[in-house]
Queue: 4 jobs
Job 1
Amino acid sequence: MYLYRVDKRYFEVGAEIQPQTNFEQYMDEESMKVENILNANRPVQIPLRKDCLFLFFELSAALNFFRKYGGYVYEVEVDCHDIYHRGDMNKLDNLLDLVRFTDEVEIWTAAGNEYWKGGTHTFMPCYEYLVRSCIVRKCLVEPSELKSFTDNFEITKSIERTDLYLHTLENINSPL
């Protein structure tokens, strides 16, 4: 299965990407609460989120994340048996909003459980796959492309209408 990974680290084609388990140390207090809620309510067969690698299903979602945080965008391959969970990232945003607006732990727990529920999603889901590892097929976008991409996004107001998105689609469809 081919998915997308945004990562600050550089990897060669064919390299295996493993989780970088220290991402939580860079989180603000509210985001850390969200992670704690998710980890407290996760199914027992799924490792802690910090021990998972996060992959995007859609190129547009990967580029949106790249727009916010930079890094490299990779096309990666993962064995379907290595997928722990497919979750709608919009539910994470919903949970973060709840953490900001209420102190009701029961509400947080219910929202955290929604992320882990199979078959549920928001109106326009943004799927992330939690996996053990993946293999790099192609480096699609480099950090040096961030500024021109951001400038182009400000003009188009759409990830899918940016030059980088259109060029990257061509690159994905070209032979290795």
Job 2
Amino acid sequence: SVSQPLKGMRQTIARHMKESLINSAQLSYSLELDITDAQLMRRQTSQSQNTTITLADVLIKACAKTLKRVRMLNSVLINDTVHYFDQINIGFAVSLDDGLIVPVLRDVGEMSTQQISELTKEVSAKAREGNLTINDVVGATFTISVLGSVDVFTPILNPPENCILGVGRSVKKPVVREGDIVIREMVTVNLTADHQVIDGSVAASFLRRFQSTIARPSSLFE
């Protein structure tokens, strides 16, 4: 056997995640989304704008729109005090060779999907080049983590945030629509929330609104 101590970024991540589980009452909720129309509009917009808008960009925009409606999730818990925000700063998990880092996309509630796409490309490049500053990784009020290789996973909160959304892989599968069996592209999202702050009914309301926004995606490409 081989023994290898945790060190560097991996050690920091391990400590941060352990403290997260100890200091919060984490509860996760899952829901399946129909992303067929959103994917079609994403590809059409990418082609017309001569750029590449990813599904993650679209989901970040949908999160921002939904957080404006369900504001309790756009919050942090510090010293037993909940702080709610109007500005939406979404952390976006970026995988690196030695771990995971979460740069912050600031004020995305006021951005178009195209603007969000440009920003995610910029911060992802900075992360992989090791050029992020402390200001680039603090101040998130909500986080999204896309893990496109599994269907379902349970994301761990990034304190002091009260919510994190995990996104699994997209899969084409048969579903029933208006009594007919059709093939649609589906993805499972997993919302972890701190039950000290976010009740189940509020978390469910967020997921349902998020689901509806993705299913009728025209407002995401205005």
Job 3
Amino acid sequence: MAHIIWSNDLSVGIEIIDSQHKRIVDYLNELDDARLKHSRDVVGGVIEDLIDYTQSHFGFEETLMEEAGYPYVNAHKKIHELFIRRINEYHDRFKLGDDVTEELHRTLTNWLVNHIKREDNDYSSVVQLHTAKGKVDLEPETSGWLGGALKRFFGKKK
């Protein structure tokens, strides 16, 4: 495993979503560090953070897609559900004493490359078009829809 650096080919073109996706890169790098240091505590922390991340990020992303009228939102939700289930399985195995570090790293790398580059890029144009029509304000500093969604999902405006 090696550290991964965020690159523009991973961008969906929506700044708030890209900043959330960058957390996956951080998790991958934390796992790589944990492997090198043989730190079970760090791996456990990453898994706990991933559980929180998936709940908040996926909920936020799905709400954004629904608000924009993305036609494949239900299929996208199913993909998210499968990923959540997989992370919970890693959590359960980890609690039983399994070393899931490398397998989790592979899963996150595949998720980063396949899901973000493909499925998330599919909804991006719909959300951006919706934004261009003035129906969704993607400036988190404002009190518009996104500001409210940020507060609802993350406890505060960015």
Job 4
Amino acid sequence: VAGRANVLLVPDLEAGNMLAKSLTFLANADAAGIVLGARVPIILTSRADSVLARMASCAVAVLVAKARRDEEAAKAG
């Protein structure tokens, strides 16, 4: 990834777990995890996640849910 990535997409849960753990433990990165594709965003955290990572996951899920509601409202007219 060139530059500073804001979002990293992974093909499956195992790849996401490996990437998140690597970034967290080797690069001291903070991460937020949600699963897309369900009717509602699914918050994905680990027992080892910090409070900041858990709160970031909640915040991202709220933003995704709001964007979906706004999109549905716009379609409805």
